[in-house]
Write the structure tokens for this entry.
Amino acid sequence: MSDTREAAGSPTRARFGLRTRLVLAFLLVAAVSAGTTATLTYREARNAILEQTQNTAVSSFRDQVANLAVGLPVDGAHLQRELRRIAGRGKPRAWYVFAEYGSVRVSSTSSPVSTVITPELRRAAHADPRGSFQRVVKGGDPYLTIAVPAVFATGHSFQSSGLTLYAVMPLNDEEANVRAMVTAARDGAVPGLAVALVPALLSARSVLRPVRELRLAARSMGRGRLDTRIQAKGSDELADLARTFNESAGALERSVDELQRAESRARRFAADVSHELRTPLAGMLAVTELLDEDAGSLDRDTAAAIRLISVETGRLAVLVEDLMEISRFDARAAELHLDEVDIAETIRKTLHSRRWSDPADVVADLPDAIRARVDPRRFDVIVANLVGNALRHGAAPVTVRVRARTPGTGPAALVMEVADSGPGISKEAMPHLFDRFYKADAARTRSEGSGLGLAITLENVRLHGGTVRAANAAGGGAVFTVELPLTTEGATS
Amino acid sequence: MRRALGRALAASAALLLAGCGVQGTGVVEAGGPATVNVYPDEAHRLLLFFVGPERQLVPVARSADTNFGGPEELHISQEAIGKSLAALAAGPLPHEQEAGLESALPPPPVGALRVTRSAEFPGRVEIRASFSVRRLPEHAVLQLVCTTAYAADTSGAVEVLLIGPDGGVPASRCAEEDGADARPTPQVAEPDDLRQTSGSPAPRP
């Protein structure tokens, strides 16, 4: 049974269980660190590649331009020849060269104007006689564009010549290198994540095993096996928890033992007391019966006193019998002697033996042909206690009704209702009706009963595996309903 | 929880991939200009300044008929200045016009331009024009100043004062001697520059 419950409970627990969370946390940490490292490395490497290309290109372009000899205004055809010469000497890679002077536009290509060079770069070259470059991505292809204004020496100083030279260098090779780095980073990260899975699973296992042991131990203790202990290994927090669990379990076991011993002592004492009272009471009863018979011949006061002693002794005997019965229940010594009987017949016998045959007192609604397996003696006690209780605390007439419930609306059961015509049960009394020595009417401290009748009834019904409950009927009056399982013949041995 | 985690991972991966490849940049400054050779050489050219199609001052090197001396020899030759200014006033030649150059000066005839050396400030050249100079466009003033400066001194390190019948424009320079900032913008001479230039353009006897 424990296995099936565990199997049913585990899928909901496993969905976001400790294992999943630990593995996810490990993977996340691994992914973040791998991603961060890869990103930073990639950035640095990419920048280094590009910076080297840019620096080489800018300085070599400036060197190439410095070899030019031009007239002002420039001679287009001559300049174009020069540009073609420079275009062939691109470093680190071939480049396209463009030149501007006034409205003159010359290039080493067939088109005199570049579509890649941005207006910002031109503005920067015109505003300042300084070299500058810009990386441009055009149509998905990256380019390095360089602008170098040309100056010429005038005595000790330099004068801007109005001529600006541009170089456009495709960066496709650099792009390919950079992409290769991304691929390498990705190919390195995925196996890294797979490797991270191993310590994740191992650590999850090391945490989950003690947790599972704890869970099983706690469940075992819940079922009453207080001697359950866990093997506490190691010195981590989980081992501490296991040790604490063991200590708590030991303390609990000791105190429960103590309680059980005290309770059994108390029960044994009550049983011993009632047993010891029984023998002298038997003698007293015999004597009081004798005295009762002779009471008529005594003077009035003495006769009244003797009758009182006789009645109280009889009550004491009943009380002692009830106490012994309760003690037997407490000691789990009560035995059930089942016998198949006719219920109507049994109830009628009970009523007759208690002399409750007057219809003004008790009305019996007993259909024939209901047979059930009950303990006849205990069933007699149940009926007698309920009817007696109804007559004492309720009012006549008391109705006893019996019916068999068919299996359709629940398990097959024998249902007996004992209803009185009294004022019903107060709300305060309702929860305590079946308590021992409970007195519904506090003023009537000396009840005719022992105060144990309903408690004994409850124990007897439970012994049969049934239930008893009290309620107030719609028209007033208390209704006690007993349900006993109606076992078919031969089902119970 | 897992869905949110997946979303975060996907977002970071997208971010990572977006940063991949070669990105465009802004304009980055990288080193100085390139120095080219301009022919004819210093000793055999007149350096005139015209205005380009983008309103920038563009130099033009014309061959000078006369040899004014060796490149190392510094002088102020009123004849050279006069020649340069006359050429400037005449406007760009046809092949210069083809290159998109024009002059911001009034169309020829401009009128007389008298060039004198300043008596108070050595290294300053004064140009007296017969036309109004205060209403000249900025580029016209720059043309006059730079052309005069380079005619007077190979380094162009001369202060030029432009005076017309309506008064003068503040004395300005075309270029600085060290060439750190060769922008031909008008500026008031600083004492430091005056001291440096005062010695070199010594009057010839």
In short: Residues 66-76, 177-205 of chain B have pLDDT under 50 and may be disordered.
